[in-house]
Amino acid sequence: MSDDCVSDARTSDARVSGFPASGDGGNPLRRLSLGELRRRTSAKWRTYPADVLPLWVAEMDAMPAGAVTRALTGALALGDTGYPSSGTAYAEALDSFARKRWGWDGLAVERTAAVADVMRGSVEMLKLVTGPGDAVVVSPPVYPPFFGFVEHEDRRVVEAPLDADGRLCPSALEDAFRRAAAGGRRAAYLLCNPHNPTGAVHTRAELTAVAELANAYGIRVVSDEIHAPLVLPGAQYVPYLSVPGAENAFCLLSASKAWNLAGVKAAVAVAGPAAANELARLPEIVGHGPSHFGVVAHTAALRDGGDWLDAVLTALDENRRLLGELLEQHLPEIRYMRPEGTYLAWLDCRALGLGDDPAAVFLERGRVALSSGIPFGTGGAGHVRLNFAASPEVLTEAVRRMAAAVGR
Ligand SMILES: Cc1ncc(COP(=O)(O)O)c(C=O)c1O
């Protein structure tokens, strides 16, 4: 059975490699054929052998926004490949975007700092408010670097697991906050808003409850909001800094996920009004992180890439629906937590009886690469994360391979 699946998978690129048959200008996820995508050299396309269909790391199979292409090629044409200027263009573009898209006017440019990327920025904020040996609370299952980056800086991870629906759990948070702050130690909470991998978009009520609890236990909140522009129809992104009680928090924003710019790094750290003095103490060296091309590309995306983002969101919404249908049809045992945001689907595969690491089975027998749930921490075993920022054709083929891998 496994041999059949493998040989079948090896030839099945042919099923999807020819599209788009006659162009599909409206859907950025259908502009490149699978053959073209396989020529990419990024992690998504080079980590696994060429017969594997990759739906794992958070990269999109989209052509870039025209605004980004124009900004980067324009800079190259001028040899504009130096250091970033110390200006605030990126933060200003983010501020305008936040006002227009989210109706949020609390992103004060004077309370921002440019950082290399969201994870580096998150860690630098955590270092402003905690010391070595202090605790950082995280809500698993969660983006795996939340564990590694925190521990690398000699902070202790304390878990406040999500509930069974993949949402924040106030009692788990309270328990974790109490443990984290025991003995009067400084402690922080690294929030993920929207949440990777469950795609939960935290509501104003949920975030207000977080702020109340954080203040009750003296916990400082650092909110990773990298997925904020990727909220799908039906949900509404709420900036953590916009809820009452969050004045002493920090958040990290970036155009990197929404415009697929992980290769041109930059991000912005934003301090709430009561955290501005701490942000001002950020070591100068942290500001050396973002690249000039990152700043150029992210600024252009935020300023002029709105239509492209809308097209991507439409395509992702359609893929979210398609994935639900495909799973229902071919793998009904999988519990699909329909995400409210991000392009990541968190799939509970426990009813398939594939053990703790179903991703290993789908890879070996189906030649489809998904993210294993195990590194996402408590609640991750028996789960996989599927990246649906692909064409409908690739998505359909991926589910077909997954089904074939378990004999369907
Ligand atoms: C929640 C979250 N934070 C951070 C990152 C990485 O962002 P960066 O490359 O800007 O550090 C990702 C990437 O997928 C993510 O999902």
List the helices and strands and how they pair.
Blueprint (H helix, E strand, L loop, with lengths): L1 H10 L1 H5 L16 H4 L5 H4 L6 E2 L11 H12 L11 H14 L9 E4 L2 H12 L5 E4 L6 H8 L3 E4 L10 H11 L6 E6 L11 H14 L1 E6 L25 E4 L13 E5 L4 H5 L11 H13 L1 H25 L4 E3 L6 E5 L9 H9 L1 E2 L1 E2 L10 E5 L4 H14 L3
Parallel strand pairs: 1-11, 3-4, 3-5, 5-6, 6-7
Antiparallel strand pairs: 2-8, 7-8, 9-10, 10-13, 12-13
Helix pairs in contact: 5-12, 6-12, 7-8, 9-10, 13-15, 14-15
Bound molecules: pyridoxal-5'-phosphate (PLP).
Features:
binds pyridoxal-5'-phosphate, four-stranded antiparallel β-sheet, Class-II_PLP-Dep_Aminotrans, disordered N terminus, Aspartate Aminotransferase, domain 1, PyrdxlP-dep_Trfase, Aspartate Aminotransferase, domain 2, 15 helices, about 400 residues, alpha/beta
Describe the protein:
This protein has a seven-stranded mixed beta sheet with strand order 2-8-7-6-5-3-4, with helices on both faces. A four-stranded antiparallel beta sheet has the order 9-10-13-12, covered by helices on one side. It has 15 helices and 13 strands. With 408 residues, it is an alpha/beta fold. It folds into two domains: 2-65 and 307-405, Aspartate Aminotransferase, domain 1, CATH 3.90.1150.10; 83-304, 3-Layer(aba) Sandwich (Aspartate Aminotransferase, domain 2). It is 39% helix and 13% strand. It is globular, with a radius of gyration of 21 Å. A hairpin with a 6-residue loop joins strand 9 (335-337) and strand 10 (344-348). The chain starts with a helix and ends with a helix. Bound molecules: pyridoxal-5'-phosphate. Pyridoxal-5'-phosphate binds at residues 58, 117-119, 143, 192, 196, 224, 226, 254, 256-257, 262, 267. It comes from Streptomyces hiroshimensis. Residues 125-401 form the Aminotransferase class I/classII large domain. Its EC number is 4.4.1.13.
